[in-house]
Design brief:
alpha/beta, Rossmann fold, Dihydrodipicolinate Reductase, domain 2, 2 domains, 8-stranded mixed beta sheet, 6-stranded parallel beta sheet, 14 strands, 17% strand, globular
């Protein structure tokens, strides 16, 4: 289901997800955990429904500038059997007021992207754990502050990057860990999705997505593409992204789109959008591996999030299938390998995941968020992943400004990545779930 259809459908119900969860994952702890949620548009309410589907979850407080969104979110909590949550809606300080509550263990952040980093920092400074929508932030300054705040406060932080948990991505993760592809050395990944419908509000003014397209450029939404590949490559655990180069096509599509939608003489048609129609980033790791990240959210083109992982003994290509050395020129459909290499997450909770949306990833990332808080353990997608993946926006923009010049990618681990086992003990799908 594409994003447009998903946002319009409203088909997901708390009852369906909870029933699937009870059937598939009967051993989840029911220790009480308490969440505040900020940002309660379509996406935020969807994640709230998932939260309420897990045993022991309480939501004492919710925050959004829209009273209508708050009302709808409160109904989600009540219908799931929770107590009516306190509502915070006054700008600009009500979020801070919610953070002062002593009956909240963690905050789920689903606001527009520019607020993710400052709100996460504020939450950790208030003693709360954080689950943040993507990306984690934009400037290197705020990303460094995010990392330092997490280290100083000792709070847990998870980036809610759902694409890592999609079924084929997790299957490939297991196959990589079992060495089936040999040593990986090249990858391609992408976020290609026509999101022009998100540019304008119903009254014709720019929405937050449109404002970003007007004012910014570069690979500004890299984590959906880069996250799965980073885990396949073991980045920040024995290797890291070292530098990148980037190029971007000259903006064309959005001006034509605005002129067709509002008329050639309209104010909207006169907007000079900064974001190019297609951006490609080439990343080199410290061990000499290459990753290509493609980004396009403007072109008239069906949704296409492709992944490729090339190793010394075989290759996975989401557009073609899987091929191993010695198999001639044929591709084998990736589905063929699910029987043997389907990840344990999917084998034990596939029904619940399929009911959650976004290819099942939403269910698992929220489940890991809940368990991170419940067990007070570092998550699989931690603050170092969040900062390094998100920094590609800043670095790609610098490279574009330099006509494709190479730009160093910060080491947010400050050298800890050199020990491949330094994050042992993290919560999540850390080992191969089934041996070949």
């Amino acid at each position: 289901m594409n994003r447009r259809a998903f946002l319009k459908s409203g088909a997901l119900t708390w009852a369906a997800v909870r029933a699937a969860a009870d059937t598939q994952v009967p051993n989840l702890s029911e220790k009480s955990v308490r969440f505040g949620v900020v940002g309660l548009g379509n996406r935020g309410r969807h994640l709230l429904r998932l939260l309420m589907g897990f045993p022991g979850v309480q939501v004492p407080a919710i925050c959004d500038l829209s009273e209508k969104a708050l009302e709808a979110a409160a109904e989600v909590v009540i219908r799931a059997g929770g107590s009516p949550p306190a509502r915070y809606s006054k700008a600009p300080n009500d979020y801070t007021a919610m953070l002062r509550r002593t009956d909240i263990d963690a905050v789920l952040i689903a606001t527009p992207t520019k607020w993710h980093c400052p709100q996460a920092i504020a939450a950790m400074n208030a003693g709360k754990h954080v689950g943040s929508e993507v990306p984690a932030g934009f400037t290197l300054e705020e990303l460094w502050e995010l990392v330092r705040t997490k280290e100083r406060t000792g709070r847990r932080y998870i980036l809610l990057e759902n694409y890592l948990y999609m079924r084929h991505n997790m299957m490939v993760l297991d196959m990589v860990r079992q060495g089936l592809f040999g040593e990986l050395y090249y990858a391609e990944c992408s976020y290609i999705h026509d999101c022009r419908f998100m540019l304008f509000k119903p009254d014709g003014s720019l929405d937050w997505w449109g404002e970003f397209a007007r004012d910014s450029y570069g690979s500004d939404y890299p984590t959906h593409a880069l996250g799965p590949v980073s885990k396949w490559f073991g980045l920040n655990e024995g290797d890291r992204m070292e530098y990148c180069t980037a190029m971007m096509s000259t903006p064309r599509v959005l001006k034509e789109y605005a002129a067709r939608k509002f008329g050639p003489d309209s104010p909207q048609a006169k907007i000079d959008f900064a974001v190019g129609d297609y951006t490609s980033v080439l990343i080199r790791t410290a061990s000499g591996k290459l990753i290509r990240v493609d980004y396009d959210v403007n072109s008239p083109r069906p949704e296409s999030h492709f992944y490729l992982a090339q190793g010394t003994r075989g290759v996975y290509d989401s557009r073609k299938g899987i091929h191993f050395e010695g198999e001639g020129e044929k591709w084998t459909p990736a589905e063929t390998y699910l029987t043997r290499y389907d990840h344990e997450y999917w084998r034990t909770a596939g029904a619940a995941a399929e009911a959650s949306g976004h290819g099942g990833g939403d269910y698992f990332v929220i489940r890991d968020f809940v368990e991170m808080v419940r067990e007070d353990r570092e998550p699989w997608i931690d603050v170092y992943d969040a900062a390094s993946w998100s920094s590609i926006y800043h670095c790609s923009r610098q490279s574009i400004d330099g006509r494709g010049a190479s730009v160093d990618i910060p080491d947010f681990t400050q050298g800890k990545w050199k020990d491949a086992s330094w994050r042992a003990g993290q919560l999540g799908p850390l080992r191969a779930s089934r041996r070949a």
